[in-house]
Specification:
The protein has a single domain (6-182), classed as Rossmann fold (3-Layer(aba) Sandwich). It is an alpha/beta fold. Helix 5 (125-134) packs antiparallel against helix 6 (139-147). It is globular and about 45 Å long. Helices cover 44% and strands 23% of the residues. The strands form two sheets. The chain has a five-stranded parallel sheet with strand order 2-7-1-8-9, with helices on both faces. A four-stranded mixed sheet has the order 4-3-6-5. Bound molecules: adenosine-5'-triphosphate and ligand LQESDW3C.
């Protein structure tokens, strides 16, 4: 892969990581590499490009065959990014972006040394709850995610860039400016 070609949006759940990733990645012409997950879609009746939803059997089989660049088990669900999807985007000469938790971010950074950049997006706990509620996430899931908040937020000290996402357009603008300065 050419450098730096993998942008990882990580941070606290519900902070707006996907929203910001789409804005920045869309404007800079990066390709989104969706994770696979065994989690059920939250709104099955609505189109959802966030994940590739697969059965547990399919996921475990691909994992056994070594098809994932990284995997994570979170609250009983499995998540992972397929190697060939990362490579396909890169072969087309594109930088890619991913949205991962800290475990996935660490794994990708170790695997693609010098090629991956972590962009940490966070909000405070009250805002996190409001944003997840606005997305229709159940109270039970929100309470579970809030339990991970302290672990998630401390990961920011390891990331190359850190942004509090108050206003989405402003956050995206700051990220573009920061990346342009360092490229
Ligand atoms: N700056 C912002 N101000 C207000 N609402 C926002 C902002 N950024 C994102 N949102 C909204 O907050 C909700 C969560 O955003 P998003 O899904 O992008 O977050 P995420 O961190 O990817 O979430 P998840 O933890 O579920 O993966 C969405 O409804 C989104 O429209
Ligand atoms: N390590 C990985 N984390 C991932 C991956 N895909 C998504 N995620 C993160 O998992 C949690 C839970 O996601 P949710 O959509 O079920 O709320 C969140 O932090 C995601 O960013 C992955 O492939 N690897």
């Amino acid at each position: 892969m050419s450098r730096p070609s993998i942008y990882i949006f990580t941070g606290t759940s519900g902070a707006g990581r996907k929203t910001i990733a789409r804005k920045v990645g869309g404007e800079l012409g990066w390709t989104f590499v969706r994770s696979c997950t065994t989690r059920a879609p939250r709104n099955p009746s609505l189109p959802d490009e966030d994940y590739r939803y697969v059965s547990r059997e399919q996921f475990d089989a691909w994992d056994k065959e070594g098809k994932f660049a990284q995997t994570a088990d979170i609250d009983g669900n499995r998540y992972g990014v397929l190697h060939h999807e990362l490579e396909a985007a890169n072969a087309a000469g594109k930088s890619v972006y991913l949205v991962l938790n800290r475990v996935g971010a660490d794994a990708i950074v170790k695997q693609f040394v010098g090629l991956a950049v972590r962009i940490f997006i966070y909000v405070d706990k009250t805002t996190m709850r409001e944003r997840l509620e606005s997305k229709g996430v159940s109270f039970e899931v929100i309470d579970r995610y809030l339990e991970h908040y302290s672990d998630e937020v401390t990961y920011r000290s390891k990331c190359e860039f850190v942004f509090e996402n108050v206003n989405a357009n402003h956050t995206a603008e700051l990220i573009r400016a920061a990346l342009t300065k360092t490229s």
